Amino acid sequence: MQEDITVYVETEAGEKVALSLPTDMGLSLMEALKAHELEIMATCGGMALCATCHVELMESPELPEPSDDELYMLENLPNLRAGSRLSCQIKVTPDLDGAVLRLMANH
Ligand code: FES
Question: Which residues form a coiled coil (predicted)?
Fold first, then answer.
């Protein structure tokens, strides 16, 4: 049974764009954002090596803690925020429903 969730992406103008994402395809959040043609480079293809998939989670349900590799990349970002995550390391699961995020690679 397919269950879609809704994730909101806040634009620079402060608007929230609602994205409907499928949870049964094993996608990472980065892949799902890319599929919606959002500006996210994801140069390393999801290996936690480039941080060009950096997002700030502004509102989010409890998610699994970042791995050491993800933490290492995040700690070296000049624009680190309290809710910073690498979107390639987050799976699109029902837990993510209602999350609000901002794309950070260009900030
Ligand atoms: S895509 Fe490179 S760190 Fe996420």
Answer: none
